[in-house]
Amino acid sequence: MSFFTNSRGWNVGRLLAAACLAAGLAASAHAADAEPRFLDVTAQGYSRWEFSGDDVVAFYTGGVQFDYLGYHLAADELRYNQATKVAEATGHVNLAFDSVNADCDQLTLDGIKGELRIPGALTGFLERPALAFTAAGGALLTFPPGETVEDLAQTRITLSGGVVVTGEHQSRLETDGLVFSGADSQIYTSGAFTLTADFGKPELGDSGTLDLSPITLRGASLTGIVSQDRGITSELITQADVSSPQLKLAGTQIVLRDTAAETGTPHTWEVEGSGNPLSGTLIQPKQTINFTAKTAVSASDAEGLISLNLQGAVEVLVNDMQLSAKQVLIARAKEGYSIAMPSGVSAAFDLSQYSGSSIKLSSNVESLLGK
Length: 371
Description:
Layout: E1 2-6, H1 12-22, H2 26-34, E2 39-42, E3 46-52, E4 55-68, E5 71-81, E6 86-97, E7 100-110, E8 115-118, E9 122-126, E10 131-135, E11 138-142, E12 156-166, E13 172-181, E14 186-189, E15 193-197, E16 215-219, E17 221-227, E18 231-243, E19 247-258, H3 260-263, E20 269-283, E21 288-301, E22 304-318, E23 321-332, E24 337-340, E25 346-348, E26 361-362, H4 365-369
Parallel strand pairs: 24-26
Antiparallel strand pairs: 1-3, 2-4, 3-4, 4-5, 5-6, 6-7, 7-8, 7-9, 8-11, 9-10, 10-12, 11-12, 12-13, 13-14, 13-15, 14-17, 15-16, 16-18, 17-18, 18-19, 19-20, 20-21, 21-22, 22-23, 23-24, 23-25
């Protein structure tokens, strides 16, 4: 049995009640009105209802707008099953809730299961922080079954297939799968990823500009924390490869932290890495410093690397000079970088290669730190 009408300004509960009364199903109408309201809808076109026993399916066409358990949606067409509480939207679909907005061609909302599925490509953005995203393979959003979604903290979002997330400083994260947990603001990839960011050429007063070309992070997986004001502020990378114009690191695991809030200075970062061994390169205009170690902790700001603390079976190679120690501290000096280490260091080098070099060797790490 089907029933047609123009549905402008009506909601599902009233329409179903009217249809059931017209069919002489007063008892079913009373039961439907007694249920919690899942869906409120308006449509600019024509709509129809199909009845099969106690099962009622409503179809809406033409500029459909509806609210579903806190989600605000617009679509060309809507199919809603009153018994299963499943809504299927198709054709220029827009989804909005809290700070999330997304566009796609089709989605299915199951209020009883607490699932929102997008089977195809989608684009969208997150207002806080300002992140845009696309996914070629679709998305799954889960929320507490039967509950109204009031904020992002109640949801978990999974993006699949050709995922790209972009943010400030031209940051771009590319991966095949991405999961965001609204409860703890954690984001992680389900496979290999590449993350790049470009801070441009900030002015440095009389010294001109500093070229901070793209910083690139690669690895087997990434776990990070998303903050509402600064985007992804910390990342844990496995099988990591970090590359910038000045510093390159490769190790089993690397943790990257945005320390701007702690230091009060924008674009300050701390990198902590480990490996068996961890390897890296510090690139300078006059020399290149290569090293291996078990662990490394570095601090950077807008002018570049501040310090690099290497520990555990450290090997440092500067041109033709090789240093071995348990700990080595490389720190920014007035000209180039100075190298400090505890006692017990062994070194091998050709003095003729270092006439006028800015490299400084110290047997006491504390002397370099001014303690």
